[in-house]
Amino acid sequence: MGISFTVLSSGSTGNATVVRNEETTLMIDAGLSAKRIDELLKERDVTGEEIDGILVTHEHSDHIKGLGAVARKYDLPIYANEKTWEAMEKSIGKIAEENRIVMDSGEVRDFGSLRVESFGISHDAAEPVGYCFYDGNEKLSVATDLGYMSDKVKQALSDSNVMVLEANHDIEMLRMGRYPWNIKRRILGDMGHLSNVAAGEALSELLTGDLKRTYLAHLSRDHNMMELAKMTVRDSMEERGCFYKDSEFKLCDTYYDRPTPWDKVSEP
Length: 268
Fold this sequence. Notes:
Metallo-B-lactamas, alpha/beta, RibonucZ/Hydroxyglut_hydro, globular, about 30% helix, MBL fold metallo-hydrolase, 14 strands, WalJ/YycJ-like, 9 helices
């Protein structure tokens, strides 16, 4: 079977992704209400009882809104580093001690035949992380909410077959938008969010024969559009001499209001 995944929802209104192989089903973040997460899971023929655990990237509400409720409803273990636990405990309510599991940044943990590696990212949270998933020769990487693409993050993402990567905003739309300047400065900063241009710059370095697809994620509803994001990412890559055909590498959509289709990492 290998690795399959669906991005249930992506954006500032809520984030959740499901990754599974033949033995294990994991959720990354639970940033919507428990009711909405159940609805999105049902759309992809998954039940809460099938989930084996929830991996947390960081404590912002669009990533943990339904975390406590979902974990209690289905008696699920939650995996997060110690600083993230400290930052989110008051927000998620009481969690059974046996379901409160510390997974350090940089730790590699096996869930049956599904190997998971966390890696540190730059964002204005306590200790934010992304995740890589391995099954045999397959590798899926998920990296959103990162202010810039550091060398360490590039190293973590290298050799991925499929990636979920942030392309949060169009820089000019953000600069001209209605947000106050202090929020714009935060988003544009090294601990904010990755722009379309920055996503393209990163992909121009990460695009190898191994990388087949990248899902552009965590798009701002106020300062971005999917077609604009894909066009800007392509232009940014080509400006750096990175040319490709759709048959060789694809940019894929994510949505804030519906899940992506199941994607098998092994598929060309």
